[in-house]
Amino acid sequence: MTARTRLIPGLAMLGLLLIAVAPAMSRTWSVEKDGSGDFMVIQEAVDAASSGDVIEIGAGRFDEYQTRQGGVYFFDIHVLIPDGFELTFIGVGADQTVIGPIDADSHSNLTEGFWGDSQIRLTVRGLSVENCSQFSIGFPSGLLDAADCRFYFSGDYTMDTQAIYGGFTEGARIDNCTFEGFFQGIATINSPAGVSISDCHFTCSTGIYSWTSNSANVSISDCVFDCENIGFGYLGGAGGRAERCFLYNCIMSLADCGEAEISYCEVIRDDDGYALRLTNNEPVTLMNNLFQSNGPVIMLASYGLGTFRENHFLRTGNDYWIKTSTHSSFHDHVIDFSGNWWGTTDVEEIAEGIWDCEDFDTAYNCVVFEPIADGPVAVENHSWSSVKSLFR
Predict the structure, then answer these.
(1) With 325 labelled, which of 96, 128, 346, 360 sits at a CA distance of 20 to 30 A?
(2) Which distant-in-sequence residues (6+ apart) come within 8 Å of 329 by Cβ?
(3) 184-215 CB burial, b ≥16 within 10 A, e <16
(4) DSSP code of 341?
(5) In whole angstroms, what is the distance from residue 208 CA to residue 231 CA?
(6) Pairing, β 86-90 against β 97-99
(7) pLDDT tens, residue order, the chain (392 aa)
């Protein structure tokens, strides 16, 4: 009896300890416009939720918002996520669950879809964010997992109008999403843990803009860009790997980029614009790509670091294949473009179509293009015929 009496308090203490250290169970909340869920407003569900919870959102347009002041500006935010929270939002489909106003000009303040001030872990599935004049999703640090979503802006964009903007310090995965009407579809600025973007379609001014050396591992695959300016760019030290992408009437920009590897991509232009901007200071690999334009094909100002082999550089007009920049102090960097196909085996024609140090004393680059490939090389990893039919 005495031993039993001594054992019970010990078990009770162990039980209390296990309760204290056990992780809290996540809860699923429902938001329905017709009142059949836990809430009718998304922000009310967020305010009730704990970190790790799931919020399921039914059909309809959810345009409720709260106004916050940041400096001298006011922002209308549709979903404000508490600092340090991890939340999952699941809609019933991008064509049914819509967050944001129906009219892009309905707010005098800048509007944001999802926003968190610090260290947010956000998952979104099966919903649309529409007509947010600043960010559809934005936060300075944390993790993002977005799939099967639509981001749309119907008004006149400004430089603030960006669909996804963030410092993804814990990484990001963006898959099977569409971006339409933005100044920039995705902007990564501080993402050392890596970003993966796949199977997305961009109809914006710029599709993907990766910036700074803290975004040196941005992977882009199987995406389509029908943009006004840049399809995708690694800029200001950013880098990564891009493969199996298709760009129509927009440039691929590798401007002061970090290390980058581009393969099985196609850039087709019939608007007289450059297909490729290559101004790299770090090694770049271009393999098995197609760059084609009825204007100049490549804008070049490179230190010559990298590998450029088995690509198609095709001009459909009479402009240059390659045109280098000039610089009074930095010039005559030799760059090796041998082993590529230029649409012809006439080396004199190719030489005349390359504007480099042979043409101007202060040209940034001297281009070596021989030996050339003696015929077309494989540049398609799979058929793009269905994709190209969207634009031709």
Answers:
(1) 346
(2) none
(3) bbbbbbbbbebbbbbebbbbbbbbbbbbbebb
(4) B
(5) 7
(6) unpaired
(7) 344 333 334 434 334 444 444 456 899 999 999 999 999 999 999 999 999 999 999 999 999 999 999 889 999 999 999 999 999 999 999 999 999 999 999 999 999 999 999 999 999 999 999 999 999 999 999 999 999 999 999 999 999 999 999 999 999 999 999 999 999 999 998 899 999 999 999 999 999 999 988 999 999 999 999 999 999 999 999 999 999 999 999 999 999 999 999 999 999 999 999 999 999 889 999 999 999 999 999 999 998 789 999 999 999 999 999 999 988 677 789 999 999 999 999 999 999 999 999 999 899 999 999 999 988 877 765 444 444 444 43
Same domain, 233 and 187: no
Q: Phi first, then psi: what are they for 218, rounded to 5°?
A: -105, 115
Euclidean distance between CA atoms 194 and 219, whole angstroms: 8
78 and 113, same domain (yes or no): yes
Cβ–Cβ < 8 Å for 123, 91: no
pTM: predicted TM-score of the whole model, two decimal places = 0.91
Q: Residue 392: CA atoms inside 13 Å, Cβ hemisphere, count?
A: 10
Listed residues 167, 193, 219: the one ending a domain? 193
Are residue 103 and residue 219 in the same domain, yes or no? Answer: no
Q: What is the DSSP string of 305-366?
A: -EEEES-EEEESSSS-SEEE-B-SSS--EEEE-TT-B-S---HHHHHHTEESTTT-TTBSEE
212 and 182 within one domain? no
Residues 238 and 353 in one domain: yes
Query: Which tokens in the block code for residue 113?
Result: 């879809």
Token code pair at residue 110: 């800048």
H/E element, 18? helix 2-21
Task: Print the domain residue range for 160.
Answer: 50-193
Domain boundary among 193, 219, 245: 193
Co-location of 147 and 259 in the same domain = no
Q: How far is 300 from 359, CA to CA, in rounded Å? A: 14
**Same domain assignment for residues 158 and 241:** no
